[in-house]
Amino acid sequence: MLKGIDPILNADVLYALRAMGHGDDLIIADTNFPSDSVARDTVLGEVLRIDRRAAEVVKAVLSLYPIDTFVEDAAARMEVVDEPDTILPVMQEVQAEVSAASGPTMMSIERFAFYDRAKQAYAVIQTGERRFYGCFALRKGVVPPDEV
């Protein structure tokens, strides 16, 4: 146990978050997402797991992980098939966590385009989220220097 670090963030996830650089994508996926097969194409090459709801995982990750402020697609969600404007409760919950971390409004990405983006990501965290369309992409930003 460490002070100041959310205990749901296991050692493998902490390693990946620390290793990522500015502009790298992190995918936070629900239990139905093909996380293992997609993760094989990522930089990390293996799936990470946190068996919690998507919003809990996003909140824990964003307690340490800055969201990119230089791009429009820094936060994204997989859109509902044939309903790109539908915002499901799981998406609202995750957006609330992104907003609480001063992040942008999430853009929507068509399902297969989301799979393509996920394969280019640094890492995939598969959550215990069982609600459909609980899949999100967060692009890492920068940590500014300490004020002197």
TrEMBL record:
<dbReference type="InterPro" id="IPR007721">
    <property type="entry name" value="RbsD_FucU"/>
</dbReference>
<dbReference type="InterPro" id="IPR023750">
    <property type="entry name" value="RbsD-like_sf"/>
</dbReference>
<dbReference type="GO" id="GO:0042806">
    <property type="term" value="F:fucose binding"/>
</dbReference>
<protein>
    <submittedName>
        <fullName>L-fucose mutarotase</fullName>
    </submittedName>
</protein>
<dbReference type="GO" id="GO:0062193">
    <property type="term" value="F:D-ribose pyranase activity"/>
</dbReference>
<dbReference type="GO" id="GO:0036373">
    <property type="term" value="F:L-fucose mutarotase activity"/>
</dbReference>
<dbReference type="GO" id="GO:0006004">
    <property type="term" value="P:fucose metabolic process"/>
</dbReference>
<dbReference type="InterPro" id="IPR050443">
    <property type="entry name" value="RbsD/FucU_mutarotase"/>
</dbReference>
<keyword id="KW-0413">Isomerase</keyword>
<dbReference type="Pfam" id="PF05025">
    <property type="entry name" value="RbsD_FucU"/>
</dbReference>
